[in-house]
Amino acid sequence: MKFNTKTIHGGQKPDPAYGAVMPPIYQTTTYAQSTPGGHKGYAYSRSHNPTRNALENALASIENGNFGFAFGSGLAAIDAILKLLKPGDEVISTNDLYGGTYRLFTQIFEDFGITFHFVGMKNASNIENYVNANTKLIWVETPTNPMLNIIDIKAAANIAKKHGVLLAVDNTFATPYLQQPLDLGADIIMHSATKYLGGHSDVVMGALVVKDKDLANKLYFIQNASGAICGPQDSFLVLRGIKTLHVRMQRHCENGKAIATYLATHPKVEKVYWPGFKEHPNHAIAKAQMRDFGGMVSFTTKGNNYAEAIQLVEKLKVFTLAESLGGVESLAGHPASMTHASIPKEDREKTGVVDSLIRLSVGIEDETDLIADLQQALG
Ligand code: P1T
After folding, report:
1. Ligand 1 shell residues, CB under 6 Å
2. What single DSSP character describes residue 335?
3. Which domains does the chain have, with CATH numbers?
4. Cis link prior to 146 (omega < 30° from 0)?
5. Binning pLDDT at 50, 70 and 90, where does residue 343 land?
6. If we measure between CA atoms, which residue out of 150, 160, 375 comes closest to residue 281?
7. Active-site residue (options: 6, 52, 136, 195)
8. pLDDT above 90 (res 339)
9. What is the pLDDT of residue 342?
10. pLDDT tens digits along 61-87
11. Residue 236, by phi and psi: left (phi above 0), alpha (psi -120 to 50) or beta?
């Protein structure tokens, strides 16, 4: 089945009760049993829920995996991955990543005795410099949030395999429309399904997808034992979102390209970060591992002035100044004071998250309205 068919049909079948094409929202905690243990595969909704299971099957299908798991948020999904580890274990993570992921790693899991190495992965061979006998997990986010760096997933997977460690890829920015990390050798795919998978800025959710059964069993155990599941209504909404993922992503990519190209010519703009530019340091890798370049664009303005950057985002009218990304509407953010404020200034500046950096989640509106909005705000 091709991707554009999988988003609609992958892992799905009509509901067995009445043939409903969309799974009903099974808003129930529990299921009647004829005798203790005598149930129809569903005993309690933390463990299994038919609406969530329908979504999890769709997630596995669109990522070319075998097992999907849905959680109450992206961070809850990352939290579940880290619970595979034990005190003394080490993680090698990209140094340019979502601020909340960094906060979870450094302010929760470091206290449980796990060591994190935050390293530049533009050249993936750098990962190998940090591998030792305690390394258990490599954490890759690509494209990265917010600098749109590209990490070579295949190269990272080769290092992970050589040393017998897990490779997890945060596929939030790309989505499986653009890249399918399991096919490139990753072990675990993670999503903030809050973003493009849901696609309408109305659900907070996380997801994991794996191929390997043993790994799936461990993650299912953690999902059920820790309990950070999502509810049936949210499962329904994200399943509905996935059905238009390919159509939305195509337009996000077209508009992203138009905005990046416009900004690159603007006299007040210092630098535009978008992997579709030939000048992007890992453009060749992006071209090889992604189908297109996505709808996320970051840029800095000349003078690197904090107050001017704030003024600019406040002036936008079609773009909404807000956290988050990946919805049909265009959003603008100021990472230094918003999404990445939990990263110390000197650390974030090392990766390029400077005071004038603005991140755009380019939506699927008419591109001329988006460009006109940027034009008046940059005015
Ligand atoms: O917000 P949540 O669903 O818990 O997902 C966390 C997360 C994980 N990974 C990436 C790449 C993300 O971008 C996020 C969430 N990011 C934002 C809220 C943001 O505005 O960048």
Report:
1. 73-75, 98, 100-101, 141, 145, 170, 172-173, 192, 194, 204, 206, 323-325, 339
2. T
3. 3-242 (3.40.640.10), 245-378 (3.90.1150.10)
4. yes
5. confident
6. 150
7. 195
8. no
9. 81
10. 999 999 999 999 999 999 999 999 999
11. alpha
